[in-house]
Each structure stands twice: as C-alpha cells, then as structure tokens.
Amino acid sequence: MTTNLEAAPAATNGKPPTADKLSIVMFSGTADKFIPLGVLAQAAAVMATDVRVFVTGFALLGFTKQHHDLPFPAELASMASALTQGMKQTHVPSWDKMLAEARGFGAKVYACSMMAGVMGLKKDDFNELIDDVVGAATFLQEAVGGQTLFI
Amino acid sequence: MSTVVDSRGSACPGPITDLALAYRRAKVGDVIELWATDPGVKADVRAWAAKTKNEVVSIDEQSDKIVSTLRILRR
C-alpha cells in the first residue's frame, strides 16, 4: 500500500491552508444580530470565498422548522419597528433569504451538536438552512487557515 | 457578449450578488454592465473584480444610477 504524501488533508477540501475562507460562529439569538450574519455570509459567498457558519446557543432557534419569533435586545426594542420598516423601504432581504443565497453559492451551515442536544433538537427539527449537525472540533478544523467571526 | 444586469433599488450585497449570478453564466471576453443605486457598489465592484481577477472597465456615476462595466477575463 502506498501513501500519497502530496494529498492535502480532507478538512481543507484539497485547498492549501491559506485558502480564502470565512467562518462565522453565530451565537446570539437576537433578531438584530441575524442581519450581519446574512449580509456577511452572502457577500463573502458571492466573492467566491468559502463560507461556513456554525450555529450555537440561542441562535439555533432561528433555524428550527417550528417558527420562533426572534426577540430584539431590550435596549433596542423601542427601535425594532423602525428598523424593520427601514429595511423594507430599502429592499433589504430578510436574513434567511440572504443565508439561502449564500448557500446557493456554496456556503455551509452547521448546527452545534452539543447545544442542539441541550435544547432537545434533533437534525430533523432544523429547517433546510442547516446542512448538518456537527461538533465544535469539526467546525474548528474546517476553520483552520481562514478568518473567523463571532456574532 | 454584453449583458446588462439591472440591480437598481437592491441594497448591499444585492448588486454584487446579481453580478456574481451573471458571472456564472458569462464566458471569457464577455462584458457585464451592472446598474445599481446602492452607493456601496463602487468599492464592492472593485473588490469583487480584484478577488475574482476580472477587469473593471469603468464605473460611471450617473444622476439616477451607477453603471459599472466589467470585462470577464477568467472563469
């Protein structure tokens, strides 16, 4: 049996570790934080950057088949309706449409297996935006060599 | 081939997304003309072209829209 020393590790999908890659940890469960998630994931994906999103914490509630109204943080609650209206007027799509667009350009979205377990959520409880339920080690390994954002 | 992509009224990152969608269908040598009203498009078009190694031929700021013309050099 021969070993191919040239082969790149599977976690980098055959690209060198300097490959252009953006990894986003989506932790916050408030509605305001989902807007930059959508914008940055979509912008990076259409810029031909490899995008991975790791969803954990209360952010998981934005990705379930059962709809949850995402709350605004208390200090921003009074501005929530103005923000929603402003986004409609300026034709900003909803965060989930932006993330779906990013997925159309190859972005991968993972749910954190530990928090999913804590919240009693199984793979089948998540909507079509979630590609897989994975552990932190998998995400960290895939993020190697790229930029990582924590939202 | 020359294509006009009308992204007027679409907010960032809509215009760049429309450009990327047109790029998927484009061939080397094609020219894409992107119409947009989001002011971020001027810098974003340059960033997209630098990243994908395509050419910005011109960025023309007109009274009612910004017209970015790109030549596809690579697929």
Describe the structure.
The complex is a heterodimer of chains A (151) and B (75). By secondary structure, chain A is an alpha/beta fold. Chain A has one domain (26-73, 80-150): Hypothetical Protein Ychn, Chain: A (3-Layer(aba) Sandwich), CATH 3.40.1260.10. Helices cover 33% and strands 16% of the residues of chain A. In chain A, helix 1 (31-46) runs parallel beside helix 3 (95-104). Chain B is of the alpha+beta class. Chain B has one domain: TusA-like domain (Translation Initiation Factor IF3, 2-Layer Sandwich). Chain B has helices at residues 14-25, 41-52; strands at 2-7, 31-36, 55-61, 66-71. Chain B starts with a strand and ends with a strand. At the A-B interface, helix 1 of A face helix 1 and helix 2 of B.
Any key phrases for this structure?
heterodimer; A: alpha/beta; Hypothetical Protein Ychn, Chain: A; 5 strands; 16% strand; B: 75 residues; four-stranded mixed β-sheet; 2 helices; 32% helix
Secondary structure layout:
The complex is a heterodimer of chains A (151) and B (75).
Chain A: E1 21-26, H1 31-46, E2 50-55, H2 80-89, H3 95-104, E3 108-112, H4 113-118, E4 132-134, H5 136-143, E5 147-150
Parallel strand pairs in A: 1-2, 1-5, 2-3, 3-4
Chain B: E1 2-7, H1 14-25, E2 31-36, H2 41-52, E3 55-61, E4 66-71
Parallel strand pairs in B: 1-2
Antiparallel strand pairs in B: 2-4, 3-4
Largest sheet of chain B: 4 strands, mixed
How many beta-strand runs of chain A?
Answer: 5
Assign a percent range to the helix content of chain A: 25-40%
Order of H and E elements of chain B: EHEHEE
Look at the structure and give the CATH class of chain A: Alpha Beta
**SS-derived structural category of chain A:** alpha/beta
Largest sheet of chain A: 5 strands, parallel
Task: Give a quick precis of the structure.
The complex is a heterodimer of chains A (151) and B (75). Chain A has 151 residues and is of the alpha/beta class.
